[in-house]
Amino acid sequence: MYDLAIIGAGIIGTAIARELARYDLKVVLLEKESDVANGTTKANSAIIHAGYDPEPGTLKARLNAPGHLMFDRLCQELDVPFKRIGSLVVAFSDEELETLQELYQRGQVNGVPELEILDQKRLRELEPALSEEALGALYAPTAGIVDPYLLAIALAENAAENGVEVKLESPVASIEKLKEGYKIHYLGGQLTAKYVINAAGLFADAVNEMVSPPYFKIIPTRGEYYLLDKSAGNFVKHVVFPCPTKLGKGVLIAPTVHGNLLVGPNAEAVDSKEAVETTAAGLEWVKQEAQRLAKKVPLNQVITSFSGLRAKTPSGDFIIEEASGAPGFINVAAIDSPGLASSPAIARYVVELLQSIAGPLPEKKNFNPIRKAIPNFMELPPEEKARLIKEDPRYGRIICRCESITEAEIVQAIHRPVGARTLDGIKKRVRAGCGRCQGGFCSPRVMNIIAREMSLPLSQITKDGRNSYILTVPTKNRAEEIVSPEPEALAPADSPVDERYDLVVIGGGPAGMAAAAAAWDRGVKNILIIERDKELGGILQQCIHNGFGLHIFKEELTGPEYAQRFMEEVRKRGISCKLDTMVLEISPDKRVTFINSRDGLRTIQAGAIILAMGCRERTRGAINIPGTRPAGIFSAGTAQRFVNMEGYMVGKKVVIFGSGDIGLIMARRMLLEGAEVVAVLERKSYSDGLTRNIVQCVQDFNIPLLMRHTIVDIKGKDRVEGIVIAQTDENKQPIKGTERELECDTILFSRGLIPENELSRGAGIELSSTGGPVVNESMETSIEGIFACGNVVHVHDLVDWVTEESRKAGRGAAVYLQGGPAEEGFTFRTKPGASINYIVPHIVRTAYLEDKLELLMRVRGNHENALLVIKGDGRIIKTVKKKRLTPGEMLVLKVNKEDLTRQQFQELTVDLEKEKA
Amino acid sequence: MTEKELICIVCPLGCKMTVKESSPEAGQYKVEGAQCARGKKYAVEEYTNPTRMVTSTVAVKNAPLPRVPVKTARPIPKGLVLRCMEELNRVELTAPVKIGDIVIENLLGTGVDVIATRDLG
Q: What ipTM was estimated for this complex?
């Protein structure tokens, strides 16, 4: 018999478990989900409120202020990031200014320290980004931010280390009252306990009713949020609230402890305790409210949106008491805001309550309050990093590139007490998959690590337990195999790293390989290519379809064949490569910092750098499709990797959203591998994909290609169960009344590519409207000697254009290293006309041109029989007739150097004129 | 006289073409809308005997990856694409695999081989 059972491992259950671990008791913590912190704890505002908000006299008032002051010590003991950044409640009217006074008074009564009313001027000094209409604010310097699920995990780990037993995936079905104590029947077993603590969150009413008459009802209240990229993390420095209303504390804007920006929530009472979907209306309201607080809140940098449910009751206060007629059964219910801030005080309060029932509890002599976090490798000083890689080479392998999370961190997350078993479990513990690509790059790799460490086949790795499977079956009718428990072999020891290279190429895809080879051919022999994957070739290795190389090789190659030709070019020339190596930083003076498991963390000096990092896929989060967040949602490229390289199917009944080339090609791939492709959806009236792909991937197999359609809702709790689609108007917005449901278990997003320029941004390189660097005719960026080519500059449709552009960059780097041309010339900028989306290059120095200038561009909209006019300061230089132009196809215009330099000018424009009849 | 509308896939231009069977006995075809000889050739082939390249993967043992990409060395009749996929399911290679290695010889009697499209292992 256990002394005590806690039902529910959210922040409250884990806080109580850890507090009870101080005593000599046999404690069990039961959780229905596959992980701790999986309900309200994983989706809330993450704010440690100061305590001026609750009505004096309530439990909330009694526990919030003392609770929030306990966080420094708690988070120090548990090694959890916590920042006391202070909060501001902002007033926009005289009436709201009065509310600030009321809150101030309440704060005084509740014992909140250091409260202060700020006037407009002080407020503006503290938060210049806030709306100018803000008149003043209540400043609570002791309010803070924390990572709620990391805190709950740390509490659970520390509780487990001190003897508390944790049972996951153990939903409680019924509770029997015994003569002494209770018998709890849960999925998979039963246990008895003298005392029971009901911390079941949204389900606390149901659990209470297993032993006691109903006397409270939990009303699930949904809050929807946007999470913004780290580049927006400094938008505000404090937690910024509007004035509270009856509905709640309103839409806040706050930094997160990890440096992102959080915006939300709304508050909507919902029927279901599982209604964690986002809605278009809810998110729109959040957006408007946030803009009221700060007009320029950068919602274009949203990386995902999510929603969580709060456990509210009509009375509005916490319920912490022994259930009537059920001695020793303590309800800890209705813990909505400020539950997180109050949690340490709640845990203490519960222990005192228990002691008042059970008498004094014996203290455990060897209780260890200290829990060490998994080291956040990237935040460690260089010497410490070097030491760790030496100790465990897996610290040298970056698995999640957005958050720079290493394999060693992921392995530890799995093997900790109460370790991670799922992708979301890894994400919560070490943030792999939390970044801007939302797991697109790392999820196949993380799944392999979990499978390997747990000796499981890949299909048993879930997103979040239960039925949230990610992969279905191996392709080719193969039997499934358990992933070898052997740790992955390190890449063979390659050449030692020099301190200096003439040229460092970042990225070993088609762009990097072509650029390196071209530079070599122009006399640059001391070159290093750095590639994050275990082999060269980049994304081409997963593009197993044909159609590559028509321009350069005059034949149709598959992606891997194209890659292998260039790999051969690199090998023949003896160009050095560092594989399985991630570049972390480049500096304006061309120092490159990289990491791998053989060389550790190294910084080398480059004479010139070529950026060839390619691009990433736009995610569902970035395009803001409402609905649930089940497994079965992939970006098309991630699915392509699973199917073509890992040999696994990602679903049986697939909808593809976006008719770009990757989407079309994946439609055929999925179909040929045995899946049903329900439809390919396209928001626009035309496809950005190549005609051959529309014909051969979709029409050949009678796959419905629904033009002018979008997804307005995603359904399914664990795995996708269906979507709601609607027709779109000319602005690509859904038309009300045209909604219909499609049944599917998988959605592939093929919604465009984004040049991957975090390194460029870090170096201070100027970026253009394409998302890539501003470049000149030699593909040189705004920093002298740093060049860029391929999809990192702008997204290409054909790899041949990437190759040609990259050769230009390679030659450019060689010319730069060799001191530039002798000849003189003039410099002009290029400017797209109204019907041209962009032009690359942006700047041209005529002295650096060989025989001609190539202008790469994309048009806006579809055109037939068009006349393209190239002008220099208004004077026509060249006209080109084109039968058909579409935005999906890159347009390459060539101008002879001779024609270009006849007369000096400052601005070159390209625009479209309809050909005269 | 029969005719068929096609979109050319030979190059990214995607010409809209019409194939007309002008004199069936002699196998004479008229192609409208094509801008190059290759397009005309494609149109006639697509009309008379449509063919497709098949690109897929086959299972491979003892390699760093469980699948290796393959293709038909030349296009095969369009009607055989799904049967080709079934044939590929039967194959299991053992690493090392070299680019160009024959994976299936004379696929379904077409005279076309299936070949590996990368080195692996």
A: 0.93
